[in-house]
Amino acid sequence: MRFRFTASAQVAAVACATVLLAGCASTDRPSQAASAAQQAQPVQVKVFVAAMFEIGQNTGDRAGEFQHWYERYFRNAQPIAVAGALNPVYCNTDGVCGSVLGMGKVNSSASMQAIVLNPQFNFDKAYYVISGVAGTPPSRGTIGDVTWGSWLVDYDLGHRWAPEEGQPGAPVFVPRKGYEDYRRFALNPALVQAAYAMTRAVPLQDSESAQRYRMRYPDAAARKAPSVHVGTHITGDTFFHGPGLSREAQYIAKLYGADDYVATEMEAAAIALVLKRTHGTDRILSLRGSVNFDQGNPKETTQAHLDPKPGETAGGFAETVANVAVVGSTFVDTVVKNWPQWQNGVPAQR
């Protein structure tokens, strides 16, 4: 950067250099040094919203995981480019920031690390809402549900073999030693319960197509209207599917001491590891909306469920991404509005 000094500024600069006086300033007004210092001040982040994908633009078309957040908080925000991140970061004047990190563990965690290490932001007191869509087992949830993650469990870290190569009916997975510190994360129960308490009664949208689709399943949980609840989120780069792999996911959750598996997603455990190594996990929330079941109904094969005929999809995607944002924004708005009580940690709940 090249600066143009006035004559009086040049004299002042020479005087400073000659007598080595600290703190000498240019006589230009306003001070260029002060202006540069103001520009260099990092954004004090109160809440960071991490989405994984957007379908098209951030506003004005079909909504993916970020559009509702963008329209609520970032319409007037300028994009902040971050080297190493997939997409820019947006921040509003209230300290709410957000970005689309990319799908999958590597994609999302690489973006998250680039953002949290970037000097343009101060994350020392930030809360994180990892926000996106998910699948759910029909025994635990339904289309349109929104769940707060109590545990984040990595589905992939271990040893697997073909079922016919083991004992009939026995699990085909064992954890690999050495991954104990990053294959599962118990999220701050005080934070999770506070988020759940303030959002459990939030009205959720539903769709006629999702209502019809639920009736294909005999499970009581699958047939219910959408609701907000809490449970383990399983992170896997593989889009595992079918009753057998769903049981395996539940087995892994229990093997690691977590509670019931309720959502399958692709990023949260990896993002949590990045944050654990930089700012800790006490302020992480994982928020997922269920847009599909992790298996077909008893009358269809897994392959048929993965590749449905026209008109036989679940529907409810648009309603679910709206549900995620309305639930999540309830938490975000509460934290921002009551920042003096939240900045140093989760306030005691009444």
TrEMBL record:
Residues 294-314 are annotated as: Disordered. Gene3D superfamilies: Nucleoside phosphorylase domain. Residues 1-22 form the signal peptide. This is Purine nucleoside permease. Residues 294-304 have a biased composition (Polar residues). It comes from Comamonas odontotermitis. Keywords: Signal.
